[in-house]
């Protein structure tokens, strides 16, 4: 299994910290509004990654947080005239519905910042004790000048970063690059800390939740490429300071989503909320469209892409439904533990899903041939297609025939063979109604 590691800019062999186990953390949403389709790309990508590790037999623990303490939430509370907790709960609920609708709910741990305040105090206190952080007028900042490899993830050195940060000079900071671990708040939600009332910094929240759930280091840290800097860089800086490690052995970043070649933005009017997008396209079609592009590359949503994805989805479903007739009529059972070497080759190559989609179409072609020629491998091909599509997060409903269904199917065949097309049509209609044909 080889993964592109953003930390080293290399494709590396995956070696877990603990044999047979994978720990994975993916930055979740700041819950101050509804998420857009760009936020769903990491969700669908890491769902696929999770499913594949499971297929390989790993015991995977997948965590994705809710950033539920944040200045954006304070601002939303003011605007909506409700409390910060009400804002967070409202949008956590909406996000969980999105996960469910996109068939991406298999997250083992969903930590919230609000439940880790003491951990955050301890974490910041330790950083101050070690000289990596300093307090100034109720704020606490991370001391960049003390770090050695700052910029390692985003491939920038401190000098380059400094010249970019100069515009943002803050008299409370020793260095323009220093970032807030704790910030004094004047209005909205506040928490009592050793440094006065305020809220924690976002970069600290994620590291603390990771350390609390998993310990000092995890296998995989994921997120969208836009989080590389400053968010992930600053997570790494804190972990280096406190634990002398880069927090995760493998850093994975997915590319962003464009719509018709343009970046999604509210002003361009191409800003699509996840909950609205699912009304336009079925989750299967969205995922096929998504996985036709490698996760690291930018993805361009076009009508053409979705019509292509829709055709692929139909091809897969039609072949599976025909196979399902044979499986049921012959009293066979699908083999959900079946393995496929070619599929593994593509996935082991840093999750090459575009190749997997092409391979799926080959399997569908082979399955159709087997069905047409009454071959022996219908069950094998159908099982492989079911296993692979499930890893991609696709869902295909296949009817388990009752005795009555089997009778109806038998009768349809008999009427058809006897050229009694009137009766044959009645049974055909019935079987279509039951989603058998
Ligand atoms: Zn994060």
Q: What attributes characterize this protein structure?
A:
single chain, 437 residues, alpha/beta, Rossmann fold, 3 domains, 5-stranded antiparallel β-sheet, 15 helices, 14 strands, 48% helix, 14% strand, elongated, binds zinc ion
Radius of gyration: 26 Å
Number of strands: 14
Which class of the largest domain in CATH terms? Answer: Alpha Beta
* Widest sheet, order of strands: 5-6-7-9-8
What is the overall silhouette?
elongated
Q: What string, H for helix and E for strand, traces the elements in order? A: EEEHEHHHEEHEEEHEHEEEHHEHHHHHH
Give the proportion of residues in helices. 40-55%
Proportion of residues in extended strands: 5-15%
* Major sheet description: 5 strands, antiparallel
What is the count of distinct domains? Answer: 3
Question: Which fold name is given in CATH as the topology of the largest domain?
Answer: Rossmann fold
Q: What is the averaged pLDDT score?
A: 95
pLDDT under 50 segments (min length 5)?
none
Structural class: alpha/beta
How many separate helices? 15
Task: Please render the helix and strand layout as text.
Layout: E1 2-5, E2 10-13, E3 21-26, H1 37-55, E4 59-64, H2 71-80, H3 84-101, H4 117-129, E5 133-136, E6 139-142, H5 158-165, E7 180-184, E8 191-193, E9 196-200, H6 202-214, E10 218-224, H7 228-243, E11 248-254, E12 257-259, E13 262-263, H8 274-280, H9 283-291, E14 299-301, H10 303-329, H11 341-348, H12 353-372, H13 378-391, H14 403-417, H15 421-433
Parallel strand pairs: 3-4, 3-10, 10-11, 12-14
Antiparallel strand pairs: 1-2, 5-6, 6-7, 7-9, 8-9, 12-13
Helix pairs in contact: 2-3, 4-6, 6-7, 9-10, 10-12, 10-13, 11-12, 12-13, 14-15
The protein binds zinc ion.
Zinc ion (ZN) binds next to loops.
């Amino acid at each position: 299994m080889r993964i592109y590691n953003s930390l080293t800019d290399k494709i590396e062999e995956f070696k877990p910290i603990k044999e047979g186990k994978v720990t994975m953390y993916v930055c979740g949403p700041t819950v101050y509004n509804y998420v857009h389709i760009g936020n769903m790309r990491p969700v669908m990508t890491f769902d696929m990654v999770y499913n594949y590790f499971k297929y390989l037999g790993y015991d995977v623990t997948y965590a994705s947080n809710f950033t539920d303490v944040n200045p954006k939430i304070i601002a939303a509370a003011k605007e909506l005239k409700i409390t910060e907790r009400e804002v967070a709960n409202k949008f956590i609920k909406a996000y969980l519905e999105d996960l469910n609708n996109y068939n991406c709910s298999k997250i083992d741990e969903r930590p919230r910042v609000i439940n880790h305040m003491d951990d955050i105090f301890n974490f910041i206190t330790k950083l101050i004790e070690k000289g990596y952080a300093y307090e100034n007028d109720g704020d606490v900042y991370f001391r960049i000048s003390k770090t050695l490899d700052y910029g390692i993830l985003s491939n920038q050195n401190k000098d380059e970063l400094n010249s970019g940060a100069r515009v943002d000079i803050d008299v409370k900071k020793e260095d323009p690059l220093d970032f807030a671990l704790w910030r004094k708040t004047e209005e909205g939600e506040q928490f009592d800390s050793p440094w006065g009332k305020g809220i924690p910094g976002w970069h600290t929240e994620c590291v603390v939740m990771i350390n609390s759930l998993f310990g000092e280091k995890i296998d995989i840290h994921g997120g969208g490429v836009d989080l590389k800097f400053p968010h992930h860089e600053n997570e790494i800086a804190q972990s280096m300071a406190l634990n002398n490690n880069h927090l995760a052995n493998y850093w994975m970043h997915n590319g962003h989503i464009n719509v018709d070649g343009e970046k999604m933005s509210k002003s361009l009017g191409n800003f699509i909320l996840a909950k609205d997008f699912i009304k336009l396209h079925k989750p299967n079609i969205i995922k096929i469209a998504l996985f036709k592009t490698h996760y690291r590359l930018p993805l361009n949503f076009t009508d053409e892409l979705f019509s292509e994805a829709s055709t692929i989805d139909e091809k897969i479903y039609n072949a599976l439904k025909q196979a399902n007739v044979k499986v049921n009529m012959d009293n066979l059972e699908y083999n959900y533990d079946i393995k496929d070497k070619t599929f593994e080759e593509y996935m082991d190559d840093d999750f090459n899903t575009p190749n997997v989609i092409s391979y799926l179409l080959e399997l569908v072609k082979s399955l159709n041939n087997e069905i047409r020629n009454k071959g022996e491998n219908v069950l094998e091909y159908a099982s492989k297609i079911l296993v692979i599509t499930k890893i991609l997060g696709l869902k295909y409903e296949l009817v388990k025939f009752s005795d009555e269904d089997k009778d109806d199917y038998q009768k349809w065949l008999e009427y058809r063979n006897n050229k009694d097309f009137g009766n044959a049509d009645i049974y055909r209609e019935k079987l279509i109604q039951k989603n058998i044909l």
